[in-house]
Specification:
heterodimer, A: alpha/beta, Rossmann fold, B: alpha/beta, five-stranded mixed beta sheet, binds thiamine diphosphate, binds magnesium ion
Chain lengths: ~280, ~325
Amino acid sequence: MELKALTLQANTIRQDIIRMLTEAGSGHPGGSLGMADIFTVLYFDFLSINPPKPDAIDRDYLVLSNGHICPVLYATLAHRGFFPVKKLVTLRKLGSPLQGHPHREALPGLESSSGPLGSGLSQACGMAKGLLIDGRKNRVVCLTSDGEHQEGNTWEAVLFAAKYRLSNLIEIIDRNNIQIDGRTEEVMPLGSIRDKYHAFGWHTIEIDGNDINDIKKALAEADAVADKPSVIVAHVVPGKGVSFMENQYQWHGKAPSKEEAAQALLELAKAREGFS
Amino acid sequence: MKLNPDLFTDKVKKEATRIGFGLGLVAAARADKNVVALTADLAASTALGDFIKEFPERFIQVGVAEQNLAAVASGLAHVGKIPFATSFSMFNPGRNWEQIRTTIGYNNQPVKIVGTHSGLGVGEDGATHQALEDIAITRVIPGMVVLSPCDAIQAKQATIAAAKTASPTYLRLNRQRVPTIFSEDTSFEIGKAQLVRDGKDVTIIAAGPMLYPALVAAEELGKEGISAAVINMHTIKPLDSRAIVTAARKTGRIVTVEDHQIHGGLGSAVAEVVVQECPVPMNILGMPDKYGESGHVEQLFVKFGLTEKEIAQMCRVLLR
Ligand SMILES: Cc1ncc(C[n+]2csc(CCOP(=O)(O)OP(=O)(O)O)c2C)c(N)n1
Ligand SMILES: [Mg+2]
């Protein structure tokens, strides 16, 4: 897909995220909005998937470890054709397939239930290892957050992926510098995540996670690495596209009011005019 | 027992037990300089705001790292601190269970594990965050005290009481607001069940957020001429087996109700006493071996059959 089309698609997804969270009255806008560009590139440009056949044996696997940003995953899946877009506003409601945190058995296109942080990368490692054992060509993309890098489990998986040279594994880290209690470097400093992965034996790439060209290039580079796992440390602006949410950790996990939503949608619509 | 006079009216004050914990923690910290509090990136949700303001140097932020949370708390206890380690129940004692068992339980350290978000009351966050197994996994740990206060006032009392004991303790709390049943004058003692309402036909034993619907059910049954006793089993371990035996002998039937799986929780604990000491017919009401899901709190309790209606029905069935 071309840059302009991807940019417009990401904008549509951001607008839907605002509508979904407002209707739900709770949820996580910061991470969801920040990651819209990456999800757009993954689902509309990179992953080999077929929405009518979500279980196709040759599909690429996408594991969302930081499950709380599922609004961006749901909105992307809907626009990619996995289910009707009009279902998006049922987020977090009783009986909806769009659970507050992803439930694998509730919705086609989900590879794993998640929400409890720090265990997605291990599951992705298991998938990647299993595929390598069978000599299959599917790729595994795992999305994680910076906050989850405070969990020991994440680093256990980092060791594992290096040991087994999981070249079919690409991890993308939402390096947005926020978590619930504040800025990550104040809550529990992570320092240079890239340096750490490098020391652990991974191929490392660092990008602007809101730059679609950067994202595309990084994925192509990671895909070409044949002897080790790759990580893309994506510097992302949390709340991207909504001025009053950008870089504010307070927007990690609260829904906008009706008025705030109207303002957010106005800003996103304006930005859209700029691209067209 | 004396209950809040507004209890069965619309005027009843509602407050979350985690808020009571926050108040109790400050009181305990004022009384004992060794009280410290830890959290894993959930300071506000676990109601630590007041504590942090008053005792910033006694607050420890470990980041999103619940296994570290538990084991660091164990170390703090070993050098004389009384640590209150907080997170959501799913992660504390869920994620970090083995660290709790070995470094806190087996080491016999007086760490207070505080799970502020337990049960279905977590609501919209859904099944991944609804800890419905936490009573089971904590009460099997030798020596572990397990507390499930019914309202914010009792949560405050339980916090203050827990700080004074040397026992490893799990404090099971809730996110959602629940009616205030008792007052500051109501006595509270770890291990001593409260006969909240006397009766002679059946005894309902409840804990935590289920005490209120149990009392409403007893009121309803009273109108039908069924006399139901209600026990608040705020301490699930050590269990007040005397109170259970007395109730079994007097009413001959027991219904338990909990915001937890039917396997391994309050009902199982009560049944262990009943079958060994005073066999009488029992019904165990709780989550029937299922996961929860997203939804409004009230909707979820209705959907999974955890309301005064089902409690009353369970009693009627036993009386047939
Ligand atoms: C194991 C576990 N512990 C705690 C939580 C509660 N929690 C949800 S999101 C979050 C913050 C994590 O930081 P990050 O993923 O970087 O958040 P974001 O950038 O989206 O704001 C926490 C502590 C959780 N979901 N799982
Ligand atoms: Mg973050």
